[in-house]
Automatic annotation (TrEMBL):
<feature type="domain" description="Caspase family p20">
    <location>
        <begin position="62"/>
        <end position="148"/>
    </location>
</feature>
<dbReference type="InterPro" id="IPR029030">
    <property type="entry name" value="Caspase-like_dom_sf"/>
</dbReference>
<dbReference type="GO" id="GO:0005737">
    <property type="term" value="C:cytoplasm"/>
</dbReference>
<dbReference type="InterPro" id="IPR001309">
    <property type="entry name" value="Pept_C14_p20"/>
</dbReference>
<dbReference type="GO" id="GO:0043067">
    <property type="term" value="P:regulation of programmed cell death"/>
</dbReference>
<keyword id="KW-0053">Apoptosis</keyword>
<dbReference type="GO" id="GO:0004197">
    <property type="term" value="F:cysteine-type endopeptidase activity"/>
</dbReference>
<protein>
    <submittedName>
        <fullName>Caspase-3</fullName>
    </submittedName>
</protein>
<dbReference type="GO" id="GO:0006508">
    <property type="term" value="P:proteolysis"/>
</dbReference>
<dbReference type="GO" id="GO:0006915">
    <property type="term" value="P:apoptotic process"/>
</dbReference>
<dbReference type="Pfam" id="PF00656">
    <property type="entry name" value="Peptidase_C14"/>
</dbReference>
<dbReference type="InterPro" id="IPR011600">
    <property type="entry name" value="Pept_C14_caspase"/>
</dbReference>
<dbReference type="InterPro" id="IPR015917">
    <property type="entry name" value="Pept_C14A"/>
</dbReference>
<comment type="similarity">
    <text>Belongs to the peptidase C14A family.</text>
</comment>
Amino acid sequence: MNETIIQVDSAVNFNLGPHLDTVDDGNDDGKDLYYPRINNRGECIVLDYLDNAQTQRTVKQLESTFKRLNYHFQHHPNLNNKQTLKLLDAQVGQSAIDSCFLFILTTSCREVISCANQTRIKSDLLIDSLNGKNSKSLAGKPKIVIIQEFNQHRLICDGGNDRLPKPCLIPTYADMLIYTFRGGSPIFLQTLCSIMRQHSNNNNNKFDLVKQLTMVTNVVHERTGTIPEMFSTTIKLIRI
């Protein structure tokens, strides 16, 4: 069988043989992971465009969780569109980053993302700032974008919502995962933190990040009736 060439972030090519299926049995030797277990995972950046009492409590939970997982944690409240892009340009240029979590707390994340001071960023510009074409240091490394959109739109199980706009935040480069919850309930990120603390940074852990997020989706749907949306172009397992 001929080898398949998969483009990664428009910057790096991986040559994959005929066996493309990956099974997460918890007994990996590193070849199916983006990176082995190390002391410094990378960056966790929180863009808090609301900066209210609820998001401040959420940020504290995220900080506790990701510091425990050996991430460098950053909280940036009330940035406007230009400040946001300048921050991301500076952060993703760091060669020592092995992965990047970007949390976005906003009121809108469709074609545009609402920032502070009534400014907006086109969604594709923000996502493109993380790809390997614009940042060689992140080429071939996982970029995880987790968004909470505080509005009334909901993705309903088995039936959908005809009034719901078509999602725009879909990754077009490899090695990206975008996970979005549309609603103001604190249960979303509370559940995420709880599951990540329980199933991450553990030598006996058999749950990669996608499985953990699926568990989050199940809990959030049961408790709120809303289904978080997940789009992934990852080609290896992400085990935190």
